[in-house]
Amino acid sequence: MLPPIDRIDDEVIYTVHRFLLQSQAQAREVMGGTTKDAARPPALPWTVRVQLAAFSLAHRPDGTLRRRYCSLADLRVAAKPRPDSSGVRSADVTVDASRGLWARVFSPSSSPAAEAPAPAPLPVVVFFHGGGFALFSAASRPYDALCRRLCSGLGAVVVSVEYRLAPEHRFPAAYDDGMDVLRYLDADGLPADPAVPVDLTSCFLAGDSAGGNIAHHVAQRWTEAMPGASSSLRLAGAVLIQPFFGGEERTEPEVALDKVALTLSMAATDVYWREFLPEGATRDHPAARVCGESVELAEAFPPAMVVVGGFDLLKGWQARYVEALREKGKHVRVVEYPGAFHGFHAFPELPDSGKLVEDMKVFVDEHRRCT
User: Catalytic pick from 129, 342, 345, 367?
Assistant: First the structure.
């Protein structure tokens, strides 16, 4: 648990002010044509800019984390068994108490009339939150809200995984936790009262940023370990939202967008990799560099949807990932949002955030098993 912040001190005020001034200067720089990668920056509501400014407090200029300030962008909320305004309720499920592995299950409420036919089983989306493998939680307010929107918008039961974080738990802890949640669902299913029936043969993995990285590696591990095995859980697809991949070389988008991207910098990504990968490993480690001929993909690796933002400095690595999937003969759909920054989906006031849910629904409906 991150320590609470007792006061807003001069450093916080200075950092927020600096962020807002920098974002305005960066916008002018891009519009003036001095930034190679794009001609116009995203126009953001002031509420979004204030939240991004608060998040910027988490990082020092060298990319290292100010953990004391992280709680500014990481308020936690409890599960809510009573349906919210959109009819979604949630409950926390313990997977392995010995290592703090649990998941928050979001399900639409259902109270059909006695004479109504039984509702059709819903697909299951296992979601991995982002945060550079080091930040946030399934209980973080933005991710709780996002998973509620996914549950309602996709017509699916969403299982948001509380995996172990770096640097205390480095590679492969997050991947191991993801696999064990799938094993738990395969063996025990969802809680006895998820409100609606579910179809585990229509199970999708999804995640944003580092969570997208986890979704890829868990999908690969599961499909490699379970070919032809007796299993009630079938991976029908994977949705990677601005997945966090990387390498030692710098891509053109990394260089072009390093000073323009609002939520991420090369310095920050370097720190995240350094805290997650095995000590002494480089960013060319297979966990980070998922591209090229060396990428291993199981025959049953599921269809993928890869979400790319025009102002995401990781988009070069995401393009290489897509190329690797296609070269291996895998089905992949790329959805691009030209004006999107890294993490745009966490802000429901942005039109692209709602469009993402719509695009995900099309993908889920296309690849779920018909019942």
Answer: 342
Is residue 355 predicted with pLDDT exceeding 90?
A: yes
Residue 342 falls in the annotated catalytic set: yes
Catalytic member of 37, 209, 217, 367 = 209
**pLDDT value at position 358?**
98
More confident call, 59 vs 362: 362
Q: Convert the pLDDT of each residue in 103-120 to its tens digit.
A: 999 999 865 544 556 678
17 flagged as catalytic:
no
Q: Please indicate whether residue 270 is annotated as part of the active site.
A: no
Q: Give CB contacts under 8 A, 24+ apart, made by 299-302.
A: 299/223, 299/227, 300/223, 300/226, 300/227, 300/235, 301/219, 301/220, 301/223, 301/328, 301/330, 302/204, 302/205, 302/219, 302/223, 302/235, 302/236, 302/237, 302/238, 302/367
Q: Which CATH class is domain 88-367?
A: alpha beta
Decide: 159 and 195 in contact? Cβ < 8 Å: no
Other residues' Cβ atoms within 10 Å of the Cβ of residue 100: 14
Beta strand pairing status for 122-128 and 101-108?
unpaired
pTM of the predicted model as reported, rounded to 2 decimal places = 0.89
**Tell me, what DSSP letter sits at residue 346?**
G
Q: Which residues contact 352 (CB under 8 A, 6 or more apart)?
A: 337, 339, 340, 344, 345
CA dist., res. 331 & res. 61, Å (int): 40
- Domain limits, the chain: 10-73, 88-367
